[in-house]
C-alpha cells in the first residue's frame, strides 16, 4: 500500500509574471481546473503594477502530498508571462530535470536559450508561445495568464484538459471576459512550439529536488552581522528604490523634448518615481530629462503636460511623449 | 471587476459545494452565512480582503447587515463591543498592529460577556522592522479572556468562522479564530461550503442579556475594592465551562458536515521514537506532508489555544508515553523563560516526566520547509533532560555564509 502511494504524481507549477499580468489568477485557475486536491499561493507581499511576481500551484490526487503550505521550490513546469523577466529573474531556479519552461515571447528559440543558459539550468524542454499577439487580438489587453495555461495543457495534458480549464475560466471571470478568454485559448495549442531536450532525461513527479536551506539563501547578512538590526544602513541592506530598476517593468518609457517645455513643473509633482530630472540653471530649477532607469511608463507626466505650440506649424506638441521599447 | 471572488456567496447555497477561494474570502463567505447584524473592521494587511468580501456581499444585497466604516482599530473594537452589547451579532477582523491598537478595548468584551467574533490573520509586530508577513502576534495577547481557535488551511478557517460564531453565542465569551497571514489568507485552496440553511440551524440566535431600556443598568461602571475581585472570579468560574462548550460545538459540527475537529488533534502518536512535534496553524500541514516519508515522529496539533486544554494534553502525553516534545512556534519572548506556546505547554505539563524544547521558526513570513522540520527532529535525538537552554531560533543566518546552529 505504502509503495503504491509513492507513485501518485505530484504536479508543481510556478508562474513568473509582472504585477497586473495575472500570474496569481493563473495559479488559481490551475488549482481550480485540476480534478483533485490542489493549492496555490503567490509569493507573498505588496505588489506594484509591473514588479516581478511569482505564484505557485501544487496538485496531486493524494491529499497528504498537497497538505503542506510550503512554497514550491522545485517546479516541473515554469511558466513565464513576460520574456523580459528572463533577464531579471532566474526563472529556471530549482527546476526538475526534464521539466518544461513555457515562455510567452515573439523572439526565436536560439535567443531565449542563450538567455536561460546564463543561469546554468538543468536539462529542460522549452515551449514558446506568442501569447501577447493572441491576447491583443482577442482580449485587447496584454493579459496572457489564461493563454499560458493553454500552452501548459499542450505540454502536460496529464494535469488537466482544455475542457477542464475552460470550465474553471467560466467560474472565475464574469461572462463577457470569460467568453473572450475561451475563444482565445482554443487557438493556443496550435500556436505553441516545443523544443525538446535530450530525450534520455525523464521527468520525475515523485522525487523531491529541493536543495537544503535553498529557501533562505546564504549570502545576505546574518544575525551576528546586523548589530543595529532594524536600522537600515542602505549600503549593506537592500533598501530604498535607488537600485531597483523599475525602468525594466513597463513596455514604454517617457522621453523629454526641451523645445516644447514651458517649465511648468506639473510632471515633477505627478511622477510617482521621481523620474523627472532637474538641474539648477540661471538661478532656478529647470527640467532637463527623464530618468530611464526608474521610469516604468505610467504616462502620468504625458497626461499632465500642457505642451507648447510649434512656432512654424502652429501645432501643439507635448514636451513628454511615450516611446515603446524595442 | 473581471474577477468576482465573492460570486458563490451572492446566492443561496443549497447543497454542499466545492469552491476554490483564498482564506480571507472563504472567511468572508462563512461570516455572511452566519447572518451578522453588524460588521465593523478597519483594514490592515493581511486581513483586508475578509472585510472587503463582506462589503461585496452587503452591497449585493444578499446580507442585510450594517457595514460600519470606522477611523481606527480601537474604534472598531469599541464600536463592535457596544453593538454586540446592544444585542447584535457582530463580526470584526484585524491583525498585528491593529490588534495592539485594539488592546485597550479587548478585555471589555469578555468582561461584559458579549459574544463577539473576531478573525485574526496572524502577522508580525513591527519590531525591529516593519513586516506585513506572518508571525503569531495573538499568542502575546492571549490573557484577555477571548476564546481562540487556530486553523491549518482554508477549509478549517472557513469552518472556524462558523464554529466560532456558535462558540461565542453558547459560551457568552468573545471568540477569535486565527489563520496564518498570507500563508492561508492569500493562498487559494479547495474547500467545501456548507448550505446556508444548515449554518443558520447550527448558529441559532439565543436570548441573552443586552442593553435594554426596560431593564436599565450600568455597563462597565466603577466598582470599589468591594466588588472587583468577585467580578473577576465570577468570570473565571464561567470561563472554566468553555472547553466543554467548544467540544460540544465541534461535535455538532461533525454531525452536520462529517468534518471532525477537536481541541487537540493527534497523528501517529504510537511512533517508535516516542517523539512528537507540537504546533498550531499552517505548519501542521507542512509537518504532515513531511511525515509521509518519516514515520517515526508524531504530531500534536493544538486547535484550541485559549482556554488552554490542559487536562486533555496531559492525558494524551501520559496515555501515549510520549518522551520528547518539539514545539515549533512563530513567536518569541526575548530572553524570556520560553516563547509563549512553549510556556503554556511546559506549565500545562508540569510534573510529567517529559523532555521538551521550543524552536522559533518562520518569523516574519519565512517559509517553514522540510529542512527546518528535519533539522529539529535530528537535533532532538540526543537530548535526554530538561537542563540548559530550552529554546532557540531555527532557520536564520548567523553570518553571510553560515546558518545559525541551534544551541540547547
Descriptive report:
The complex is a heterodimer of chains A (326) and B (408). Chain A folds into 2 domains: 2-195, Pyruvate-ferredoxin Oxidoreductase, domain 3; 246-324, Alpha-Beta Plaits, CATH 3.30.70.20. Chain A is globular and about 75 Å long. The longest helix of chain A has 11 residues, at 23-33. In chain A, strands 2-3-1-4-5-6-7 form a 7-stranded mixed sheet. A two-stranded antiparallel ribbon of chain A has the order 8-13. In chain A, helix 2 (23-33) packs across helix 7 (145-155) and helix 8 (162-172) packs antiparallel against helix 9. Chain A has 326 residues and is an alpha/beta fold. Chain A contains 12 helices and 13 strands. Chain A has helices at 2-6, 23-33, 63-66, 85-88, 109-117, 131-138, 145-155, 162-172, 175-185, 188-191, 266-270, 300-304; strands spanning 10-18, 38-42, 52-60, 77-80, 100-104, 125-129, 193-195, 252-256, 276-281, 284-290, 308-309, 316-317, 320-324. Chain B has 2 domains: 7-256, Rossmann fold, CATH 3.40.50.970; 264-403, Rossmann fold, CATH 3.40.50.920. Chain B is 35% helix and 19% strand. In chain B, the strands form 4 sheets. A 7-stranded mixed sheet of chain B has the order 3-2-4-5-7-6-12, with helices on both faces. Chain B has a 6-stranded mixed sheet with strand order 9-11-10-13-14-15, sandwiched between helices. Chain B has a two-stranded antiparallel sheet with strand order 1-8. In chain B, helix 6 (154-171) links the parallel strand 6 and strand 7. Chain B is globular and about 65 Å long. Strand 2 (38-42) of chain A pairs antiparallel with strand 8 (188-193) of chain B.
Amino acid at each position: 500500500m505504502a509503495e503504491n502511494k509513492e507513485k501518485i504524481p505530484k504536479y508543481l507549477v510556478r508562474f513568473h509574471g509582472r504585477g497586473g499580468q495575472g500570474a496569481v489568477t493563473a495559479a488559481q485557475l490551475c488549482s481550480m481546473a485540476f480534478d483533485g486536491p490542489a493549492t496555490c499561493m503567490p509569493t507573498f507581499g505588496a505588489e506594484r503594477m509591473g514588479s516581478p511576481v511569482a505564484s505557485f500551484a501544487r496538485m496531486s490526487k493524494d491529499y497528504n502530498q498537497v497538505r503542506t503550505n510550503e512554497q514550491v521550490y522545485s517546479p516541473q513546469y515554469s511558466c513565464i508571462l513576460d520574456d523580459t523577466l528572463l533577464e531579471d529573474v532566474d526563472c529556471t531556479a530549482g527546476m526538475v530535470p526534464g521539466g518544461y519552461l513555457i515562455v510567452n515571447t515573439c523572439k526565436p528559440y536560439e535567443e531565449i536559450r542563450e538567455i536561460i543558459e546564463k543561469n546554468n539550468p538543468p536539462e529542460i524542454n522549452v515551449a514558446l508561445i506568442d501569447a501577447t499577439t493572441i491576447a491583443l487580438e482577442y482580449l485587447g489587453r496584454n493579459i496572457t495568464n489564461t493563454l499560458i495555461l493553454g500552452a501548459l495543457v499542450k505540454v502536460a495534458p496529464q494535469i488537466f484538459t482544455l475542457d477542464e480549464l475552460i470550465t474553471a475560466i467560466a467560474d472565475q471571470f464574469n461572462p463577457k471576459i470569460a467568453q473572450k478568454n475561451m475563444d482565445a485559448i482554443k487557438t493556443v495549442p496550435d500556436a505553441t512550439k516545443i523544443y525538446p531536450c535530450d530525450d534520455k532525461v525523464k521527468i520525475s513527479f515523485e522525487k523531491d529536488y529541493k536543495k537544503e536551506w535553498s529557501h533562505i539563501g546564504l549570502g545576505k547578512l546574518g544575525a551576528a552581522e546586523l548589530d543595529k538590526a532594524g536600522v537600515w544602513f542602505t549600503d549593506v541592506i537592500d533598501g530604498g528604490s535607488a537600485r531597483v530598476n523599475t525602468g525594466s517593468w513597463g513596455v514604454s518609457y517617457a522621453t523629454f523634448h526641451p523645445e516644447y517645455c514651458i517649465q511648468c513643473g506639473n510632471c515633477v509633482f505627478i511622477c510617482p518615481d521621481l523620474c523627472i530630472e532637474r538641474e539648477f540653471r540661471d538661478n532656478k530649477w529647470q527640467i532637463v530629462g527623464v530618468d530611464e532607469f526608474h521610469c516604468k511608463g505610467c504616462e502620468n507626466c504625458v497626461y499632465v503636460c500642457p505642451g507648447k505650440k510649434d512656432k512654424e506649424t502652429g501645432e501643439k506638441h507635448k514636451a513628454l511623449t511615450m516611446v515603446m521599447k524595442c | 471587476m473581471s474577477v468576482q471572488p465573492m460570486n458563490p456567496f451572492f446566492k443561496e447555497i443549497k447543497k454542499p459545494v466545492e469552491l476554490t477561494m483564498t482564506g480571507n474570502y472563504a472567511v468572508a463567505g462563512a461570516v455572511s452565512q452566519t447572518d451578522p447584524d453588524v460588521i465593523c473592521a478597519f483594514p490592515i494587511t493581511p486581513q483586508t480582503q475578509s472585510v472587503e468580501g463582506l462589503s461585496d456581499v452587503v452591497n449585493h444585497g444578499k446580507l442585510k447587515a450594517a457595514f460600519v466604516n470606522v477611523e481606527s482599530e480601537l474604534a472598531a473594537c469599541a464600536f463592535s463591543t457596544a453593538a454586540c452589547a446592544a444585542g447584535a451579532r457582530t463580526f470584526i477582523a484585524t491583525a498585528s498592529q491593529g490588534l495592539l491598537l485594539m488592546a485597550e478595548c479587548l478585555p471589555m468584551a469578555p468582561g461584559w460577556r458579549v459574544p463577539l467574533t473576531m478573525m485574526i490573520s496572524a502577522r508580525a509586530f513591527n519590531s525591529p522592522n516593519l513586516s506585513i508577513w506572518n508571525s503569531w502576534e495573538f499568542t502575546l495577547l492571549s490573557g484577555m479572556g477571548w476564546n481562540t481557535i487556530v486553523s491549518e488551511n482554508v477549509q478549517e478557517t472557513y469552518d472556524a468562522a462558523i464554529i466560532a460564531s456558535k462558540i461565542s453565542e453558547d459560551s457568552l465569551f468573545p471568540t477569535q479564530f486565527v489563520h496564518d497571514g498570507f500563508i492561508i489568507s492569500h493562498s487559494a485552496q479547495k474547500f467545501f461550503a456548507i448550505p446556508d440553511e444548515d449554518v443558520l440551524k447550527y448558529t441559532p440566535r439565543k436570548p441573552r442579556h443586552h442593553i435594554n431600556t426596560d431593564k436599565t443598568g450600568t455597563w462597565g461602571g466603577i466598582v470599589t475594592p468591594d466588588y472587583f475581585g468577585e467580578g473577576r472570579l465570577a468570570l473565571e468560574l464561567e470561563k472554566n465551562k468553555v472547553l466543554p462548550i467548544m467540544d460540544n460545538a465541534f461535535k455538532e459540527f461533525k454531525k452536520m458536515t462529517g468534518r471532525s475537529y477537536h481541541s487537540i488533534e493527534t497523528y501517529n502518536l504510537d511512533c517508535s521514537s516516542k517523539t512528537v512535534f507540537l504546533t498550531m496553524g499552517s505548519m501542521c500541514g507542512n509537518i504532515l506532508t513531511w511525515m509521509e516519508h518519516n514515520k517515526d515522529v508524531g504530531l500534536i496539533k493544538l486547535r484550541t489555544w485559549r482556554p488552554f486544554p490542559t487536562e486533555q494534553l496531559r492525558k494524551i502525553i501520559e496515555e501515549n508515553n510520549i518522551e520528547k516534545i518539539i514545539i515549533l512556534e512563530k513567536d518569541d519572548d526575548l530572553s524570556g523563560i520560553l516563547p509563549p506556546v512553549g510556556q503554556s505547554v511546559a506549565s500545562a505539563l508540569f510534573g510529567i516526566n517529559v523532555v521538551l524544547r521550543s524552536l522559533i521558526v518562520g518569523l516574519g513570513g519565512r517559509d517553514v520547509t522540510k529542512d527546518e522540520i528535519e533539522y529539529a527532529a535530528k537535533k532532538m535525538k540526543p537530548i535526554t533532560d530538561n537542563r540548559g537552554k530550552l529554546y532557540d531560533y531555527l532557520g536564520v543566518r548567523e553570518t553571510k555564509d553560515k546558518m545559525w546552529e541551534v544551541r540547547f
